[in-house]
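Sat 14:20. Reprocessing the chain from the morning session after the first attempt stalled halfway. Input below, unchanged.
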Amino acid sequence: MRQVRAAVCREFGAPMGIETVGLPAPRAFEATVEIEACAVCHSDLTFWRGGWGGQLPAVYGHEAVGRVSAVGPGTEGVSEGQRVLVTLIRACGGCASCAGGRPTQCAAPGDHPGLSDGTVVAAMSCGAFAEAVTVHASQLAPVPETIPAAAAAILSCGVVTGLGAVVNTARVRPGDWCVVIGAGGVGLNSIQAARLSGAARVVAVDVSEEKLEAARAFGATDGILASDGPAAMLRLGRLADHAFVTVGAPSVIDGAVDWLAPHGTAYLVGMPHSGTVGHYDPVSASYYGQGLRGTRMGDVVLRRDMPWILDLHAQGRLMLEELVSGTWPLEGINEAFAATARGEGRRNVVVFG
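Finished this time. Tokens:
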């Protein structure tokens, strides 16, 4: 079994160590990818903190880019030497969810064999904070050589989650009013998507004036401090048709419906820890015909959505390189996690080589 270096978590919330782990060879319909870069997502933080449980020891990381070095029997759509994104969307392609265009809800995704003969978990079927990964071919999507590694990695989760929530889940139309709560990496992509969809107003909400200023650069028409609340939205003219909650804070989730106009819908884009309980007024929601809906990975279909996303970037209409705020080597992963936990930057990225 091939040996690779990886960041291994052996205790929730404790610093990760750089260890050598065994990487399985690709089985049928799988491929091995040499990792160029892997971004730190808030989902990685939540898993590392134990917020969603999971077995240890584990290697996290699911927002990556790299180059295919080996393919297993029957693997189609990828080839050795190809540059690809590595995502957590492992899909069978044949269940009702996959056939209906919702591979993010695949009913039979299969299991990753794990690392070091199964003694170390490859979290989210990826384990991409490592020099290389072996994953199912459905988790891969081609990406051009022209995009720098740190920026390309963000396409695998942060971009498709924020963009897809607006385009695929909410299906925002020209003239709609949108509010995006949280102007971090995912929120900025929801803002970009709302702008591209022709929303009349794209209102960013955050606790930081600095992040609100960044949101305007990504297409927000207005910025509101979270402390000012929905009353500030009303001063702009009216409440929102769509509210995208891109942070997992329980208090923010509880207040999501308060930003909505009649028949508006709030979308839970950022996920809180398991066991979080929401509190809503069902009478108000029922009376005004409001909705609350989840969205996982922006309901993305990689082969359908990635080509037009890449085309938008090639045209200069989708900001991508601007999302990278810091880079670290694998040995600096704990510092990258700490910076992300402090809310510093848009996307912090671990770069290999």
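The chain has a mean pLDDT of 96.
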